[in-house]
Amino acid sequence: MNVTATPRARASRSYTDRTLKLLWGRAAGRCAMPECRVELFAEATEYDPVVVIGEIAHVAGAADAGPRGAPELATARRNDYDNLILLCQNCHARIDGQTGFYSVAKLKDIKQAHEVWVRASLPERGRSRTGWTAVALRGDHPLDLGTAAEALSPDFVLGAPQVLQVPTDASDWQAIDAMIAAAARQLLSGEDTFDRRIAVFPLAPVSACISLGYHLTSRPHVRLFQHHRGERSWAWRRQLAPAQDIVVSGLDEGPHRGRAATFAFHYSAAITDDVLIEAAAPLDFRVDFRVHQPSTGWLQHPDQLIWAAFEARRAFERAVQLAPDAAAWHLFYAGPAPLAVAIGQQLNPTMYPAIQLYEYRHKESPRYKPSIRLRA
């Protein structure tokens, strides 16, 4: 018996019973994206039946001209289990809209990792044995982790969170970087780094957040959470992701022979030219990351972290090509704490030059002052 799905593109989509059983069973009825894993059923109510909200996505495109199109792949094989991945509507739209990041190889890795997670973590539906080490990076203000368990559900926090205290008006930023580096080494010791699961709850100066991401690197599984002050919660809201609105400028010119580069991230507020000049930022080679309307409420969905981290990594790699002689990079950041951690994770200590961070002080001059220097 064959079951035909509703088409998302001009292509034949017919799946056998065996394919559907394997796909839904091995995924445990959950979205395969590691930062999502939402259950793909809307429970029945007194008036309505259960609704299936999952979607079957193709790894290599269902159509030659579709996302990740693969004309060399036989039509019959495109609807086989090996070429399918189970996703929620949100994540399906994301992978089909960002094919530069979500390649065929990456989606196969995501699918395989999800099925391993199912076998290890969901012996019974809705229960998890997957624990995460929680790290709280806090500034001078109290940090309430009462909703951390809700934010991680159906996974959970292993033991007590590790709290790293960072004063807002630090006098020795390098000592803070050393403290964070030591904590990161401890977190990553004793096991395969790639198997470590670390949940980060940051509410601290951005220099410390970037430092934490830098020392954690992109190797372990890291989940980042935003503190939603209005709800007093760390749990991401259940809502559709906003449109991708990040624009990167400054990478379209030819090679630069300068010895420095400046990166400005305008997410919660615009970093004006006079502020950069005031801080004596080198502007011969400057890269800007902007959004349509910078504000403290810009970050609403974890997808935005993925997009922004991807754009940062791509820009850093391009900057190495354009300015191979640069001995230092200067990072000016106006944005949310978890995104600062994500950007820090994209800074490769073996490939990039020394990186000078800056901390913003509204009533001081210059408003951006040098803080941590991350050395290769």
Describe this structure in words.
This protein has helices at residues 17-26, 75-78, 89-97, 104-121, 148-152, 173-188, 206-216, 273-278, 302-322, 337-345; strands spanning 2-4, 14-16, 41-42, 51-52, 54-58, 84-88, 131-138, 156-157, 162-165, 197-203, 221-224, 247-249, 260-266, 286-290, 328-334, 354-360, 368-374. Residues 1-10 have low confidence and may be disordered. Helix 6 (173-188) packs parallel to helix 7 and helix 9 crosses helix 10. The protein is 29% helix and 22% strand. The protein is of the alpha/beta class. The chain has ten helices and 17 strands. The chain has a six-stranded mixed sheet. It has three domains: 2-121, no CATH class; 131-224; 247-374, no CATH class. Helix 8 links the parallel strand 13 and strand 14 (286-290).
Strand content: 15-25%
**Rg from Cα:** 22 Å
Largest sheet: 6 strands, mixed
Quickly count the helices.
10
Give the N-to-C terminal Cα separation.
59 Å
Can you give the helix content as a percent range? 25-40%
- Helix-strand topology string: EEHEEEHEHHEHEEHEHEEEHEHEHEE
Which term fits the overall shape?
Answer: globular
Query: Order of strands across the widest beta sheet?
Result: 12-14-13-15-16-17
Mean pLDDT: 88
* Structural class determined from secondary elements: alpha/beta
**Number of discrete domains:** 3
Strand tally = 17
